[in-house]
Write a structure and sequence with these properties.
The protein contains seven helices and no strands. It has about 180 residues and is mainly α. The chain folds into two domains: about 90 residues, Four Helix Bundle (Hemerythrin (Met), subunit A), CATH 1.20.120; about 70 residues, Helix Hairpins (Orthogonal Bundle), CATH 1.10.287. The protein is elongated and about 90 Å long. The termini are far apart.
């Protein structure tokens, strides 16, 4: 076999390999595109369900249908679990909702914070922020993460007390990075 024939066959083979990998890449990208669209759609639905639940929670004491709204949206969310950890969070939400239905005159820590007012909530955010800073100087991961969770919890309570949502803050962050 001549050298020219060998080179032609070798280049032809490489061309076919490149073509096959190109086609496989296009197919893979289209599959990823479809999957990511489904994930985004499911995540959007989760946000809508959660938003509806939050709105209904604000009306629980004044609107008897609020409990029904929470139930409907929570059931929808239970059928829309796609992300790691989402099932556990939804199960915890279900547990807390069942407690709310069983005991509508809530005496939880969160309710007591709201009852004490914005000054007490703000004070707790400050305390938790200081505790987080103190723990950040050490290498104890468990204590640091617990303080971070406490700060995040009290921050979310503060947002709720001020009639804001976390997505209001996220929108501002997104606008800053345009």
């Amino acid at each position: 076999m001549k050298l020219k024939t060998k080179l032609t066959l070798g280049i032809g083979f490489l061309f076919i390999i490149i073509l096959v990998f190109g086609v496989l890449s296009i197919v893979s990208i289209n599959i990823l595109k479809s999957d990511s669209a489904k994930v985004l759609s499911n995540n959007h639905e989760t946000l809508m369900y959660c938003n509806n639940i939050l709105k209904a929670l604000d009306e629980v004491k004044s609107n008897k249908r609020a409990i029904d709204s929470i139930e409907v949206n929570l059931s929808r969310q239970e059928n829309n679990i796609t992300e790691p950890g989402e099932k556990e969070a939804t199960d915890l939400l279900r547990k807390n909702f069942e407690e709310l239905k069983a005991n509508p005159n809530d005496s939880s820590y969160t309710s007591s914070l709201f009852a004490k007012g914005i000054n007490k909530i703000s004070q707790k955010v400050g305390e938790e922020a200081v505790e987080l800073v103190i723990e950040s100087k050490d290498d104890n991961q468990e204590k640091f993460l617990n303080e971070a969770a406490d700060l995040l919890y009290h921050y979310l309570v503060l947002l709720q007390a001020k009639k804001y949502r976390l997505d209001d803050v996220v929108k501002i962050l997104m606008e800053r990075h345009k």
